[in-house]
Design brief:
7-stranded mixed beta sheet; 2 domains; 11 strands; two-stranded antiparallel sheet; alpha/beta; single chain
Length: about 400
């Protein structure tokens, strides 16, 4: 089985993690395991589990301190004030001063004396109950996904939670899973890899020459940050060699559409091949451009084809720190997703991540990217969907 995951995003430098052709053929092991397949507990999971809410769970002070330390370090790297507040108290539809700060929205210090950004204008001393208006921003309302549980709105939908090779190998056996994109797909890949390699001492840094000290630095939080990304392996075997996980960060925008189409074409007619694809953020969510150059040609390419099985991944909603720009605010992302969905017209399933991060529900460390909490849920949604395919007999026993 061949699976490729593609996801393109914005605003973070990227590096090619592999110079090898990512459509390369891979010999897979025919070894059997004694692992058992979990029956799906939420059929049609990509429709039923994508809307819901984050419910805070009990945590100790040390857990919160670890997350806050990570947020402080990443924001310092971007030169965002740790208080999130400008010295003049202005906030809302305004950025911080400085030429490199236009990506970020000025907010108010949630721990300070004026934690409420009122009416898109000024930080004031309002309570959470008072800080409610169309132009109000209140970081006190945001939750850390790492300290919360995603609960689908559909109460009958219960996700299987996968924890390692023992329960994932029956789902993924005899597959090649290929992640292609930039920073968002790297983080998706990290979440995916973190689960399947949870029982290995070198965790996600398998088959690399990474030192023990560096591995310790790139813990489950910092592995999501750019300083650790070059340490990731680009090819990782799993499940006694029957699974191969690959990562390439290459296809960002419409000018890469032809290369993406060639990649998908290379899987054409290959049983058990799955392509998980996203593109749009680097094109400032220009739906017409992506539809013309990628989505419509993709539909024509795969018309009447069983393989590859393509899954489109939607763009997620930005966090409060995201700069107040119409071209990539939450409304722009939502509109883009909707236009793409209309054209896809049920030919491909959609992994919709928008509502995982909608509005002020969950904390982003830079306004665009999220930590392991959100990405872990994305990985679990993908695991559950692939389990549906496996259980329904959509995958052949031997590719």
């Amino acid at each position: 089985m061949l699976i490729a995951v593609l996801y393109m995003t914005e605003h973070e430098d990227f590096y090619f993690l592999s110079q090898k052709p990512f459509w390369r053929q891979v010999e897979l092991s025919n070894k059997r395991t004694n692992y058992e397949l979990k029956p799906p507990k939420c059929w049609n999971v990509l429709k039923r589990a994508i809307q819901g809410k984050w419910i805070s769970k009990h945590h100790d002070k040390k857990e919160l301190e670890k997350i806050n330390k990570f947020f402080q370090k990443t924001r310092s790297y971007h030169r965002i004030p740790l208080s999130l507040q400008r010295n003049d108290g202005k906030c809302g539809n305004i950025s911080f001063k400085g030429t490199k700060m236009h990506h970020y929205r000025a907010l108010c210090d949630p721990e300070g004396s004026t934690p409420c950004c009122h009416n898109n204008h000024t930080c004031v001393a309002f309570s959470q109950a008072q800080c409610v208006c169309d132009g109000c921003y209140d970081m006190r309302r945001s939750v850390h996904a790492e300290l919360a549980t995603w609960v689908p709105r559909d109460k009958t939908c219960k996700l299987n939670i996968y924890t390692g090779e023992e329960d994932l190998c029956p789902v993924l056996k005899n597959t090649v899973i290929h992640f292609v994109g930039d920073s968002y797909i790297r983080q998706f890949f990290i979440a995916f890899l973190s689960v399947i390699r949870s029982g290995h001492p070198d965790r996600i840094f398998a088959y690399t020459n990474t030192s023990a000290d560096v591995k310790a630095m790139c813990d489950p939080y910092y592995s999501y940050f750019r300083s650790c990304k070059l340490l990731l392996p680009s090819d990782v075997p799993a499940c006694d060699g029957s699974v191969k996980l690959c990562l390439d960060q290459k296809f960002l925008a419409h000018n890469h559409a032809k290369e993406v189409l060639r990649l998908v074409k290379s899987y054409k007619g290959k049983p058990n091949s799955v392509v998980v694809l996203w593109m749009g953020a680097w094109d400032w969510f220009n739906a017409k451009r992506i539809i013309k150059l990628l989505v419509k040609p993709m539909k024509m390419l795969l018309k009447g084809q069983l393989w590859p099985h393509l899954i489109w991944v939607s763009g997620h909603s930005p966090g409060l720190l995201k700069a107040p720009k119409k071209v990539d605010d939450a409304e722009a992302v939502f509109t883009f997703n909707h236009e793409i969905e209309k054209v896809i017209d049920s030919q491909f399933p959609i992994l919709d991540t928008f509502f995982l991060t909608k509005k002020a529900g969950v904390m982003s460390y830079d306004g665009s990217h999220y930590g392991p909490g959100v990405n872990d849920v994305k990985a679990q949604l993908l695991f559950n969907y692939l389990n549906e395919m496996r259980t329904a007999g959509n995958f052949k026993r031997k590719p």
